[in-house]
Amino acid sequence: IDLNGQVEPNATVTKLYEDSHGILWIGLSKGLCSYDVRQKRIKQVYPDVGHVMGIVENKEGLIWICTQDNGLFQTTADEKLRSFKLDKNFSCLSIAPDWILWLGTCDGGVYSYDPSENKLVSYNEACGMNGNQVRVIRYGDSVELCGGTHVDNTGNIGMLKIVSESSIAAGIRRIEAITGERVEKAVEEMQNTLREIGAMFNNTPNLVQALKKSIDENAELKHQAEEYFNERVNNLTRELLDKAYDVHGIKVVELQGLRLPEVVKNVAFAVRAQSPEHTVFIGATFDPAGKPLLTVMVTEDLVKEGMNASSTVREAAKLIQGGGGGQPGFAQAGGKNKDGIAGAYEKMRSALGL
User: Fold this and answer.
1) Residues 324-330: what's their mean pLDDT?
2) What DSSP designation does 204 have?
């Protein structure tokens, strides 16, 4: 990226940040500029920002910039900069999961800034800051500036359990954990849950194995149920095709009475598969709850001749106080009035010229 002629002479790069839109923000000792990574060109130059010390992105995709000499800035939707004069010489900038800004100052201060309230709050005492004295926390091989533990030693925290980890913004991940008594309560709740599950399996000593066996048995039963369902559909389809009758060279297959909706649909498709030409399927059924269902299937050759399952069902559905539709070759409609099924059935036959 060639910045010559674009920025102040002798300006040095102090910060780099690529946002979620593919824009690289280049902080300088004398200004700020944005670079479109995809188009490989400088988008905007902001020469009056000052000495940039930190760049972050908020949840709306807007950029916050802290400077050593001119306070805070935020980009706007029209790519301009909004200035926040906070009378501090900032040295660094971070953004929390709750979108509060955290700022360090050149004199060793730590502050939080809530953009919604335009309020800068000092955390110098709580974080162990004292002028240019910076608190250092060492934990194993980790060395942290301003650990912010707020305890005398890590032993006061007790147990710690991470409960979730997720991405909340570009380059920012959120880790949530519980400590101390909250962990003890969580462990107790998990133990109670395990005891309840164990009781469901007669307190077997190997709960994991019992659960796996139950899952495997459930999968096998589900497979057997599917096989039985398919066999039932095939048997019903053959029975209906055997009872089919001819009207003007068209094979008419009918299904009426109490039937499960998924059975009706699968039978209609099975009829089309076994009799792919000159065939019409008409269903006027109701489920165990008494809800009526109208179904029409028309083979492709009849669709080309002008038959339309969707318009047929849509008109007939008015007689069962319902509505629906679908494709020219297959359509269904549900309703509320079971007593209207007979009339709807005759309406469908009439509309199809049968």
Assistant:
1) 89
2) -
> DSSP state, 338?
G
Beta partners for 175?
Answer: 165
Q: Closest Cα to residue 32, out of 10, 57, 12?
A: 12
Would you call 33 exposed, middle or buried from its count of C-beta atoms within 10 A (0-12, 13-18, 19+)? buried
Average pLDDT, rounded, for the chain: 86
Helix or strand holding residue 217 (H, E): helix 207-243
- For residues 245 and 307, what is the distance between their CA atoms, to the nearest angstrom? 18
CB 268 within 8 A of CB 240: no
- Cβ atoms within 10 Å, residue 333: 25
8 A C-beta contact, residue 304 and residue 329: no
Structure tokens at 305: 């001749």
pTM as predicted = 0.45
Compute φ and ψ for 224, nearest 5 degrees.
-65, -40
| 294 bridge partner residues | 284, 333
Helix/strand/coil percentages in the chain, nearest 5: 30, 35, 35
Residue 249 belongs to what H/E stretch?
A: none
